[in-house]
Amino acid sequence: MAARKSKAIAAPIPGEQARINGHSGAQVRVRAQTKARGKSKAGSIKSAPSLTDFTHPVCSAKRIKTEKPFRFHLAGIAYVLWRDRSGAYHCVEDECPHRRASLACGHVVQDAIYCPYHNWRVRGDGQCASPSDPEVSFAVPRFRVFEHLGYLWMRRDEAPEPARETLMPAQPGWKFAGTAHVTMNAPLEIVMDNFSENEHVPWIHAGLGWDEARVASVDFEFEKTDWGSRVVYRAQQRPNLLFRLLLVGTDDTYINEFHSEFEPLRTTYYISWEKKDGRGKRPLATASTVYFVPETDGRTTLHFFFQYRLSALRFLEPIVKRSIPFLAWKEAIDDKRFLESAMQDASADLKGMKLRKFDRPIALHRKLLHERYLRGTKIGAGSAPH
């Protein structure tokens, strides 16, 4: 199927000029994967995926050992990734074309992975061979893998590699602070809903944002944009000793402006503080870009990429750089615990919900999630981990 060109507009840094995102959101199906798929072990139907049209983070590059298969899921489809001795990365679906055994249970020699069942060989370029049948000569789809920001990223092989700087929105003056990931046993829609609003902050979180006494005075902005949406919360920062060490005052105004995009599916949260006397902003500002990756129909992994800007007191940079990933990870763990308990059996259907002011982004995000990102893809149940 021929690719249809479409513009994917990157969300701008607050207060700065928007940039065109070089990461194409081409509406292209994976040509080699349009065949119908059977039922997974859990009985869900896995349809032909289109999510590999977009670049997705997979894992920290440190997790990949030379010639050791690494298995992961995207939309219910299992993939196997490996690194050969030359340092090159390879990726195919984790399913031997012979009898569908897991290639991840096999072994790697040079650039090829060998199936544990009948020792079929699948090379990094997708070419297959059988020791028992020399006439075997065909290829399976392969997927492009590259390293950036200490992370591995993948997408379909036919697609051009995106400009690296578009994977994490940034501007001059922002510094990279690290990465993190959190896997939640919750469907993509439930996770996205949670991260589309801050109304739950006083009851679910204990660090960033405001407390229960200030809920009625929260200032809220929401607008639909070309790239997706822009949401801004402003409220009085609750007392927190750690933030005091980072020069954030108890009565400062906490500002969380976040931009949600859907080609690919990610949100960047820009957090800053204004002094309580109105005399400008505090030196520290942070930016957390979160990719929402649906591994299966009931499991979603969030991959975080952190940045910060410190306009003064540079001697605090080592503390700031270490604190930001930890604080954000802790906030995400709070969300994980809640979603995996109180929302475990909740329906994702918005019908019948009494949605109010702070829920306005949720309805839009649901619409854009299906129109721009999923585009008809049904997320399968996946298979049991090895």
In total, the number of strands is 17
Strand order of the largest sheet: 11-17-16-15-14-13-12
| Top-tier CATH class of the largest domain | Alpha Beta
User: Mean pLDDT, nearest integer?
Assistant: 86
Number of structurally distinct domains: 2
Along the chain, the helix and strand elements come as: EEEEEEEEEEEHHEEHEEEEHH
Largest sheet: 7 strands, antiparallel
Full CATH superfamily name of the largest domain: Naphthalene 1,2-dioxygenase Alpha Subunit, Chain A, domain 1
CATH architectural category of the largest domain: Alpha-Beta Complex
Q: Predict the CATH topology of the largest domain.
A: Naphthalene 1,2-dioxygenase Alpha Subunit, Chain A, domain 1
Specify the structural class.
Answer: alpha+beta
pLDDT < 50 stretches:
1-8, 16-49
Whole-number radius of gyration? 22 Å
Strand content: 25-35%
Q: Report how far the terminal alpha carbons are from each other.
A: 34 Å
**SS element count, helices:** 5
Shape: elongated
Estimated helix fraction: 10-25%
